[in-house]
Amino acid sequence: MDISHLTLPELFKHISELPTAKRANALKAIANITPHLKTILQYTYHKNIVFDLPPGDPPYKVMETPEDMGHNRLPYEMRKFQYFFSRSGLKPPKRESIFIEVLESVSPEEARLVLMIKNKKLTYKGFTRKLIEEALPEILQGEV
Fold first, then answer.
1. Confidence bin at 66 (pLDDT 50/70/90)
2. CA neighbor of 59 nearest in space, from 106, 109, 122, 115
3. C-alpha–C-alpha distance, residues 113 and 40, integer Å
4. Of 47, 120, 138, 144, which one has the greatest count of Cβ atoms within 10 A?
5. Alpha-helical segments (H) within the chain
6. What pLDDT does 4 receive?
7. Can you say how many angstroms the Cα of residue 39 is from the centroid of all Cα atoms in its chain?
8. Which 8-state DSSP code applies to residue 5?
């Protein structure tokens, strides 16, 4: 399967559909060629990474695009994640505004993934902390 044209949600779905025994190896291989996947997993599973955003999902307008139109804006928008932490120096309203802008600028599937990252729980089948510890233990280094 050619993964080079898959969006991040499609990659997660692909890995979750694999047999349990193959998930860790596939995750490691795909993460090594898709650095944004590692970043997402680190944001989601690293205990020291805490988003400074209100709990729950904010109101946002879902991007409306034709179903057959390709989506892959999330890797570009991930550079804005640096603003979602208290160390960013932004006041909470500005931080929340940027977060909503990100949600509104990506496909609905990517927006759901962003919310999963923020809530620190990927709902794709088989994505657990145990899988991350097995496949990519380096992204959990430095936890307290």
1. low
2. 115
3. 9
4. 120
5. 8-16, 20-33, 35-45, 74-77, 92-105, 108-118, 129-135
6. 77
7. 7
8. T
Residue type, 119: N
Residue 68 has pLDDT above 70, yes or no: no
Which residues have C-beta within 8 Å of that of residue 115, sequence separation ≥ 6? 57, 103
Contact yes or no for 112/2 (Cβ under 8 A):
no
Helix axes 8-16, 35-45, angle to 10 degrees: 70
Domain regions of the chain by residue span: 8-140
* % of the chain at pLDDT higher than 90: 81
pLDDT tier at 121, thresholds 50, 70, 90: very high
Q: Give the model's pLDDT for residue 83.
A: 96
pTM: 0.91
Distance of alpha carbon 63 from alpha carbon 26, whole angstroms: 31
